[in-house]
Amino acid sequence: MDPLLKDWRSWGLMLASMLTIMSNATITPSLPGLEAAFADDPLAPILTRLLITAPSLLVAIVAPFAGGLTDRLGRRRPLLAGLVIYAVAGTAGLYLNTLEAILASRLALGLGVAAIMTSQAALVGDYFEGPARGRLMGYQMAATNIGGLVFVTVAGALAASDPRLPFLIYGLAALLFPLLAAILPEPPRFASQPGTGSVADNAEPGWQLTVTIMAAAAGLTFVIFYAVPTQVPYHLQNEGLTDPRDAGIVMGAMMFAAAVMSVISGWIRPWLGRIGTPVTGYLSLAAGFAGLSIGHSLGLAMLSTALIGAGLGFCMPTFITTALNVTPARHRGLITGLITAAIFLGQFLSPLASQPLTTHLGYSGAFRVGAFAFVALAFLLTLALRRQTPHATRPLRSQ
User: Which residues does the UniProt record annotate as the domain Major facilitator superfamily (MFS) profile (predicted)?
Assistant: First the structure.
């Protein structure tokens, strides 16, 4: 057994990261039902889609500041405060009476997500080093997707009875609070020492450029990827698959595949390298989007989203792991905040980009555009990383 899995801190970090996937995707099966429940609101079609990505806007704005605070104040306090906000704001959709009020609660949820995600990602860098750090990122991604598989499937069943019931799932954060408080200790703070420079911090020369590339790649990836949770439920309805449980099953296939590939990516990343790992993921994402563009059955939709999940399982751990590996220790909170902000900004912008495409090209046309976009991203990321200086790219295959 991997020694990481014998460390309670690893399990605590996996549980914390699991909450981040719930922040958006859990209520996906509820979207058509919520739109129908608020049919008298002329903005319901766009507002219901924004319920998925509204937390992302706040995360994108707040995460860099939250990350900077964790570098100054420690990791535990932001993490535990985030759990409280998450539980209160996440369950508010159970009783609020307008879409606008629910949207406001989703924005508040983003504050909790920002605190949780930046704190737990920085703790990965504090607790673990080298290949163990990359493997734990893979395990975290697996945990988020296994959790997502369970929660979205359960949400689909709950939404079949009442589209508001899936909001109840966010209460899990309150149950995790005492457990995470007990098993995640505060690590020693990092202090810069005069004259030590980047070597003492184990920073890679040119790390600012690498972090910028990872942040840009993460943001663009999620602009495209989040067409799946925001548009697939409506695409399935358009294909005659109107049961909310169908959306839950299709999303579950994606999360299961992402969980498996996230674990695998942590082990094979040293061989594929910093470039090969996300490029492999992008090609799988492109294949999945192409499958959605031609599919007319539940089985093909499940296969397509499984390819999408597998691709994300390769890409997602790479963005933060690469940034942590090259970044000075004293800036880990800030850098994880920046990567987090890029990811969630991409999520928020996604429906604003995909909705006009589905209006003019239909769902199949929009997914076809997504497939071409992921191929283009694979090409551009390869060019961008290879243009770095030889010294900066020397560890590409060892990190």
Answer: 9-388
Residues 83, 175: Cα–Cα separation, whole Å: 10
pLDDT one-digit tens code per residue, 67-121: 888 888 788 888 999 999 999 999 999 989 899 999 999 999 999 988 998 888 8
According to CATH, the topology of domain 3-185+205-392 is: Growth Hormone; Chain: A; (1.20.1250)
Residues 336, 118 contacting (CB under 8 angstroms): yes
| CA 30 to the chain's CA centroid | 20
Is 295 strand, coil or helix? coil
Measured between alpha carbons, how far is 337 from 346 in angstroms, rounded to an integer?
14
Amino acid type, 290: A
pLDDT tens for 114-162 read 899 888 888 888 888 777 877 887 788 778 777 777 887 788 888 888 8
Q: Is the CB of residue 281 less than 8 Å from the CB of residue 230?
A: no
Among residues 346, 138, 336, the alpha carbon closest in space to that of 225 is found at 346
- Asked whether the beta carbons of 296 and 270 are under 8 A apart, the reply is no
φ and ψ at residue 192, rounded to 5 degrees: -70, 140
Residue (of 348, 309, 347) closest to 146 by Cα position: 309
